[in-house]
Amino acid sequence: MARRRSGGSAGARTVARRRAMQALYQWQLTGQQGQDIVLQFAAEEEHQKADRDLFRELVREVIDDREALDRDIGEISDRSTDQLDPVEHGILLMAIYELKHRVDVPFRVVINEAVELSRAYGAEDGHKFVNALLDRAARKYRQREMSERS
Predict the structure, then answer these.
(1) Is 31 left (phi over 0), alpha (psi -120 to 50) or beta?
(2) What's the structural domain count of the chain?
(3) What is the extent of the structural domain holding 61?
(4) 45: Cβ–Cβ under 8 A, 6 or more apart, which residues?
(5) What is the chain's mean pLDDT, rounded?
(6) pLDDT tens digits, residue range 11-59?
(7) 38: in domain
(8) Separation CA 21–CA 23 (nearest Å)
(9) Residue 10 confidence (pLDDT)
(10) Residue 64 phi, psi (nearest 5)
(11) CA dihedral defined by 120, 108, 101, 1, rounded to 10 degrees?
């Protein structure tokens, strides 16, 4: 199911993805309710720079759909999700969600944003793993878009 396009600028969407990655990291470590995390992040001053609708969507939908997204990761990865670094796991959950459900966002943007997040916050060379998995995911979920760009 495709979601509607967020109205924020590219910079605001980048901030939203970074904050969503941080929120998903917190959720993985604490088990806090998604709604509580969304409210906590919304109260922070930096949140005003983010596309708040995209942030809320990413956090809520990824948490709600985590089992299916983990199955998707398992289909394209040689590692089980419990072996993934929590930062990279959160990034992959978000990016695969966007590849599947946010067809308004070009697959190259999804991959680039995820790789940049993993470079900045993930384990050393984790961005290479994220890039490889998302390339496979894009071929699976955005086959038509990829062929149109070729």
Answers:
(1) left
(2) 1
(3) 10-143
(4) none
(5) 92
(6) 999 999 999 999 999 999 999 999 999 999 999 999 999 999 999 999 9
(7) yes
(8) 5
(9) 84
(10) -65, -35
(11) 180
Asked whether the beta carbons of 115 and 137 are under 8 A apart, the reply is no
In a domain, 150, yes or no: no
Average pLDDT in the 100-124 region?
96
Write the CATH number for 39: 1.10.940.10
- SS3 sequence, the chain? CCCCCCCCCHHHHHHHHHHHHHHHHHHHHHCCCHHHHHHHHHCCHHHHHCCHHHHHHHHHHHHHCHHHHHHHHHHHCCCCHHHCCHHHHHHHHHHHHHHHHCCCCCHHHHHHHHHHHHHHHCCCCHHHHHHHHHHHHHHHHCHHHHHHHC
Residue 7 has a pLDDT of 53
Considering the chain, what percentage of its residues have pLDDT values greater than 70? 94
Question: Does residue 93 carry a pLDDT above 60?
Answer: yes
Q: Which amino acid is residue 66, in one-letter code?
A: R
Q: Please report whether residue 41 resides in a domain.
A: yes
